[in-house]
Amino acid sequence: MTEPSYFRVILIGWFILAVAVFIVLFFITVPYGRYARRGWGPGVGSRLGWFIMESVSALGFAFWFILGEFSRSAVSIVFFILWEIHYVHRAFIYPWRMQERKKDIPVLIVCFAFLFNTMNCTLNGRYLFSLSGGYSLDWFTDIRFISGLVLFMAGFSINYQSDRILHKLRNSCQTTYRIPMDGLYRWVCCPNYVGEIIEWFGWALATWSLPGLTFAVWTMANLVPRARSNDRWYREHFPDYPQERKILIPGVW
Q: Which of 135, 150, 183 is the last residue of a domain?
C-alpha cells in the first residue's frame, strides 16, 4: 500500500472516530475547569496542562513544514503562518494569561489531548507540505482560499476577543464564576467556541483538503457538547442567567 492510500485509510478512521466522540461527549463531560472531579487520576496545573496539550500542535506542524517537499511555496508559507498564529497563541500566550485555579487538569486528559493534537498536526502538516502536490500562486485568487481566509481570521478574532472577556472576568473574581455579559456573550453562551469552529471550517475551505475538513469536524465534536454542558451549568447555578441567550447560534440554538 502506498503512503497516499495508507493516509486515506487513516483519515477515514479519524473521521469516524470524531463522529463517535461527538456522540459520547453528550453523555460524558470532560473533567477539567468547572467540571473537575475525582476519579480521573492525578492532575497537573491548568497552565502547564494547556501548554503541554497545545504546544505539540505548533511544534509538530513546524516539523512537517521543515521536512515538506512543497513547504517553500508562497501558499504553503501562508498556511504555516495561519496555523502558527492560532497555536503559538494557544500554547505560549493563552495559558500564561489564565488565572491559575486550584482545579487541576487530569494527566489522563492532557495525554489524550496531546495524542489528538499530534495526530491532527501530522495529518494536516503531512498532507499540505508533502502529499497535496503543492499549491500554485493561482490559489491566492481562488474563491475557496479567499473565503476560507476571511472565515479563519474572523473566527480567530471572535475566539480571541471572547477569551479576553473571560480572562478579564475571571481575573477580577478569583474565587467564583460569574456570567460574562460583554461582546458576543450577550447572544450566545460560548462565542469562543463559535469562533474556533468558524476558524477551522475556514481552514478546511482555504486548504480545500480532507484533513482540514476532518479537523473542523473534530472541533465541532469536541466543542458542541461542551457548549451544551456550559449552557446547562450556567442555568443551574445562576437564577439570573439570561433566558434568551442561546448556546452557539444566536436566536436558534
A: 135
